[in-house]
Design a protein that fits this description.
Elements (H helix, E strand, L loop, with lengths): L1 H5 L1 H23 L4 H30 L10 H16 L2
Length: 92
């Protein structure tokens, strides 16, 4: 999982943003905010989490599945890039 340790600072920063969004949901509940704004904030949390998961899966594929991610020429590398593209479309 070398890619995780290389990106640790960026990943930790994203996690802190997601935590902040979840804390905003908790504050909104405590303050009695309307359900629309709570759902909207939860949706942002989900988007942030999906983005983080997608980024980690992409790094995993490039680091552990692909033969040459910087110059993908093999069928395996091309298929892996197609999978990454498909995942990004799915999580939007």
């Amino acid at each position: 999982m070398a890619h995780v340790f290389e990106d640790k600072k960026r990943i930790t920063s994203r996690i802190k943003r997601i935590k902040g969004q979840l804390e905003a949901v908790e504050r909104a509940l405590d303050e009695g905010k309307d359900c629309f704004s709570i759902l909207q904030t939860l949706s942002a949390c989900r988007g942030g989490l999906n983005g983080l998961i997608g980024e980690l899966i992409e790094g995993h594929i490039k680091d552990h599945v692909m033969i040459n991610p910087s110059q993908p020429k093999s069928d395996q590398d091309k298929s892996a890039l197609e999978l990454i593209k498909l995942m990004k479309t799915y999580w939007k």
